[in-house]
Amino acid sequence: MLASLAGFLIRRRIVVLAVAAAFLALAAVVGRGVAESLTSGGFTDPNADSTRAAELLNREFTGGTWNLVLLVTAEAGIDDPSVVEAGGALTQELAREEGVSNVVSYWSLRAPLLASTDGAQALVLGRLQGDVDEAGERAAQLAAAYTRSGEVLDVAVGGTAETFRQVAETVESDLRRGELISFPAVFVLLLLIFGSVVAALLPLSVGAFSVIGAFAILQLLAGVTDVAIYALNLAIGLGLGLAVDYSLFIVSRFREELAGDLSVAEVIVRTMQTAGKTVAFSGGTVAISLAALLMFPQVFIRSFAYAGIAVTVIAVTSAVVILPALLAVLGRRVDSLRILRRAAAVEGEGRWHRIATAVMRRPIPVATASVAVLLLLGAPFLGVEFGTIDDRVLPADNPAHLVAQDLRDNFAGDISSATSIVAPSVGTPSARRPEIEAYATALSSVAGVARVDALTGSYREGTRIAGPNLTSLRFASGDDTWLAAVPAVEPISPEAKTMVAGLRAVDAPFDGVVVGGPSAEFLDSQASLFRRIPMAIGAIAVVTFVLLFLMFGSLVVPTKALVLNTLSLTAMFGAMVWIFQEGHLSGLLNFTATGTIDMNMPVLMFCLAFGLSMDYEVFLLSRIKEEYDRTGDNTAAVAVGLEKIGRLVTAAAVLLAVVFIAFATSGVTLIKLFGVGLTIAVIIDATVVRAALVPAFMRLAGDANWWLPGPFRRFYERYGISEGGPSRDEPRLLSKPSAQ
User: Fold this and answer.
1) Do both 422 and 512 map to the same domain?
2) Rounded mean pLDDT of 712-735?
3) Strand pairing of 386-387 and 597-598?
């Protein structure tokens, strides 16, 4: 099949390149401005009770939970007459704004929770209507209008709407910086690897093609489903990284085969049969790992699957379709504009051959030491604490982060993070005041609750502390009512999860009650994630095992690959906790440690890193299998295979690491974690695993690596895919036109 494809690409190379150029131009137009079509939310389970609560609040109540915060600072004190007058005017001004409802303030309610403990700051709260993106657009306008510094009042703007808007804006600006860092750095490294300007430009061109194509696909997907803006980072990182890696292997194999006696056309066929097939299977393993993310309902996680699968398919297609056509045009001119020359390596004398041989002389000590090191590096993950995204993913000097930090430091409770208890279709709420009051009284006795606000007033520790006022009307709409439980604990914490469980355990006098708010969303999302993780990991393991079996005709090799690739991720998971949860290197990387890891990230990072790790496994094993089929000597095949592919795997890992580490410059902590974590995973995999563990375990298994029981062997012989080589019919296939 690949030989036939190669023949077609050689004969129709100009047509293929013209179609590719047209696709690129169309993709550039379609994908332009893709960031504006994506959402900054998507962290919750759309099927959870907490999501239903949020939907009911948005649909049925003009005044739901507050998502806009004006933090007012007054040197004279918030009770100074001039400040009281200015604060009241500010409250009325915000209440008149279009799209803003339920505006309250310290000066309108005289509520102690809306004043700082030192009396120097107070809050004006409002609700912006619409989803997270619509609210964010309005927040941008209000932030510009209400950020003020005056003689009486200083005003700063925050709240969840402004926080998510700032995150989306920061991600978009980070993308441009990442591109400016990644592309020049990758080109310089490719020049050092190939020593030729033309050869170095080929992978970079394929990388740009993949990224632009992925942007277009994400733009189209955004028209039919929600796609999170964070997926753009994966589209750039993985698109550039995989395309460069795949092109690196194909161009390197092409140049290697050119040193023989084959014609350019025969070299392209041979390259496709070996490196091309490996690239196709390798891309399949990456896509399989990323497809597992589709099992999760969160838009944030699914979006990485959309972006990752799209960019992987385009990268593979570009490498096995467009690149061979380019090579057919260039022929031996692929080494034009050479700036470096290296002496041809002598088989059996290379550095990687010596490393493999040394490892295989002492496989047990090497394997034991390597496994011990990886487990030690992964040990911090045993102390992982899960959290979710909040303002602290932004830089410490970001206005939204500063406002939220003041709320944490200077106020007794965060009223804007209240847990919402929504009771739809209760009849006429005013006629059921006794039941609402009894319910609110019981809710206020739950551990972790500072106060409960309801249509009938405010309650604390089982006692009503205030009667209803004008703002209490927001708790009723038609046949529906809701109550707000202000937390006395950190909204995203184990204590908050216990609080939500306690609120849900209270007997409700109404049917269909659902509990929402930040703490409930945290609890529901974590339960949703953990429920699906075993299924996702199992699917990855089974499908990957089958794919490797069909490629290598072995039961031992796929099993070893699954075990070692999982083991290689321990360092990444340990680094997540040591760096981002515990805060080591927070000064160097410029982020705020919260003592938790966003619960979505380990799932996302596992699927991504496992796919990339298997990517290199396929490249290495394919070369070892090729040598074993040629010689029948397992030990020699491992040494020679590692010698021929080791330098390329290392180069590919360095290139991918450079792409990912650029994301460490992001202003969003999630993206920093993404970049640093994948960089560590790639480097560990290409060094400790490929240089030490793989040759050690391959040596220990010996010829059993390639053993198959009878039924499996017969199945493989019928359905498996072997490397193969040029057939006798290929010269006829490639006879017209000739490729020079």
Assistant:
1) yes
2) 59
3) parallel
